[in-house]
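Ligand: S-adenosylmethionine. Inputs:
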Amino acid sequence: MAVNLLTDNPELYELRFPDPDHLAARFADDVARRFGGGSRLLDIGCGTGRDAGHLARNGYTVTGLDLSEPMLAHARGRHPGVEFVNADMRSFDLGRRFDVITCLDSALLYCQENADLTAFLSRCRGHLVPGGLLVAEMRNGAFFLGDTGLLEGTVTTSVLWKGVAYTSHTRLWIDHAAQLLRRHRTWEWPGRAGPLHQRSAWRLLFPRELEYFLDVAGFEVLALFDGPGPRTRPSWTPGAPLWPGLSGDRLHLVARLRDPAGRPEVRPADHPTDRSADERTPFRCTP
Ligand SMILES: C[S@@+](CC[C@H](N)C(=O)[O-])C[C@H]1O[C@@H](n2cnc3c(N)ncnc32)[C@H](O)[C@@H]1O
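Predicted complex:
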């Protein structure tokens, strides 16, 4: 993986993208429960492990998967109740199945090519029980059809870490041919000779396109919504109704693995602290 100041320094990552109230993990738990998810959970692109750790402390049996060894080392040190695995989301093989797979904060969009997406979904299919859930949260490609504000100018942010101010200048633009949102970020901090340049990119996925990839991969989309989520304004609150507009800058997905043999659906194992099936909200949010 290319050098990345944030993934190479997980403490700095958490300072730059704080989530003190564990909104992301609580959101994932909420939607998984609404759609009947069970307790064995795999968090793909788990990063610092903060979501995995919170979910494990709240009754899930969690495995976190990431490609960044610094992130995983940080996660292992802080969340001993979680198993962390170094693997690529496009090719992992853990030899077992889960009730829920989460993939949060645009980690899925590192699948930049169609083949990457297909491989990722195939791996998810191979690691979910029939009826298991894929819960994902990411940027919304459709947002840029109506709002290009994020593409204007350069955003400068500073974060203090170990007494040193790290300043980033971030510029985003769209590579239409590759259907990627590209980012150029420079970092500066006292004592560094010159700016550190970093480039990355996310796949821009449109909701109907994502639905198609999922359908072909054997998933039924249960909900696709632009909020509320952990990174929307207003942000997610427990049990909040889901917004169906799909014009916002975040895209949230809940999809269920179909039973390939067409047998009656096998429900995932019940969550140990779950409400009864009757109390679960049968929500379907179609675009
Ligand atoms: C934006 S971070 C999200 C981290 C975490 N989910 C969160 O919300 O805090 C994306 C993560 O995906 C990981 N990642 C990127 N490409 C990956 C790949 N091909 N396989 C597994 N992990 C990958 C990165 O190392 C990084 O930790």
